[in-house]
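call fold target=Plant PDR ABC transporter associated domain-containing protein
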Amino acid sequence: MSLDMIRMLGATGRNIIVANTFGSFVLLLLFALGGFVLSRNAIVVNEFLGHSWDKIVPNSTDTLGVAVLKSRGFFPEAYWYWLGVGALIGFTILFNFGFTLALTYLNPFDKAQMVISEEARSDDDDNRTGGAIQLSTRGSSSGNRSLSEAAIEAIQHNKRGMVLPFEPYSITFDDITYSVEMPQEMKNQGVFDDKLVL
């Protein structure tokens, strides 16, 4: 539940500064209120209604666990455990739903653009072997400017190169195997493979 809450705060913040501000406020609320709610609802009831506390107290019809709960002012009914479990599952679903909505409908604060540096373009013109691409996020004052106007402004004011708008994507890889040629020292020690898997 806590992980889902932090993910939802990060998705709704959309910026490290805003997310840190939201996160600090929510952590303050959790520290101030969270311990009382958890101890009253589920954790204490789960512990003291367990088998190790089911001995009958002399001169009473209550078990030892129920007597301890009543003496400390906690609710001795077993349904408080299930209320705590239900609240945990409910908050998990709520935070995941908020996270999904934030990713679906909230746009980033800045417009993502790609900047090709002047050095990379001059190197590319000289030897045609490719160049470095630098990524940055820059805001645009008007959304209907053409690409050439944005590129000219970036070259004139920032001298960073040509600015290209792009849609950022996340790419993940799974089960990647990376290998290099076997070093000669290992071949001399009796390893006969051609590739060394790192």
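return ok
The beta strands are 112-116, 134-137, 162-165, 179-181, 195-197. The chain is about 55% helix and 10% strand.
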